[in-house]
Amino acid sequence: MTGAGSRTGAGGWIVDSVTLVARLALGAMFIYASWFKIVDPYTFAINIATYQILPDCLVNVLTITLPWLELVTGVLLIAGAFSREASLTIGAMLVMFIVAILIAMSKDLEISCGCFASEAAAADIGWPKVIEDAVMLAGAGWIVVAGSGRLSIDAMMKSWSAGRVKHGKGEKKKP
Questions:
Q1: What angle (nearest 5°) sits at the alpha carbon of residue 86, between those of residues 149 and 46?
Q2: How many helices (H) and strands (E) does the chain have?
Q3: CA distances from 112 to 20, 83, 105, 120 (A)
């Protein structure tokens, strides 16, 4: 597994470019999705409840916490800070979304996904939504494996800490 900024040559730049596109696309998607849920939690709560999976008390908890988790992980991905951790979190959310959609499909529920908690952006659940989430899951997996790339806070911090250790600034003086 390679880390942020450790790749060299043309192949390294290709991997970094794909990683940057994946980070920006996933980050933007999750920030966009979080916004409507933060602004209109009532509609989002109804969307969650229509899946008929969770008790009301957990619907309320998810309504309050999930949009903020989406927002924070999206911002971290765009910045390239804690990219692997943010991608793992987004991956876990995507697995949860896919499982919820499959459960709703198995119950023959005809509901919108609630992905953007907005009637204008509503999409019915079904195989296209499962495939869309699976593609995003693959993007999150790519970032976990490839790291955050050169154009990231992760790479800057790694470079900075390597420079401090190399120049003896990270070592403690012995008594």
A1: 140
A2: 6, 0
A3: 30, 30, 11, 11
Number of neighbouring beta carbons within 10 Å of residue 8: 8
Closest CA to 92 of 133, 31, 35, 129: 133
Which parts of the chain register pLDDT below 70? 1-11, 117-122, 162-175
Structural domain spans, the chain = 9-149
Given this model, what pLDDT does residue 174 score? Answer: 55
Residues forming a β-bridge with 124: 112
pLDDT value at position 2? 45
Closest of 101, 100, 74 to residue 87, by C-alpha:
74
Question: Is 110 exposed, middle or buried, given 0-12, 13-18 or 19+ CB atoms closer than 10 A?
Answer: exposed
Single pTM value for the model: 0.81
Question: How far is the C-alpha of 172 from the C-alpha of 29, rounded, in Å?
Answer: 44
Question: First vs last Cα of the chain: how many Å apart?
Answer: 38
Given this model, what pLDDT does residue 4 score? 46
pLDDT tens, residue by residue, 37-51? 999 999 999 999 999
Which of these, 85, 66, 93, 68, lies nearest to 152 by C-alpha position? 85
Q: φ and ψ at 108, to 5 degrees?
A: 55, 35
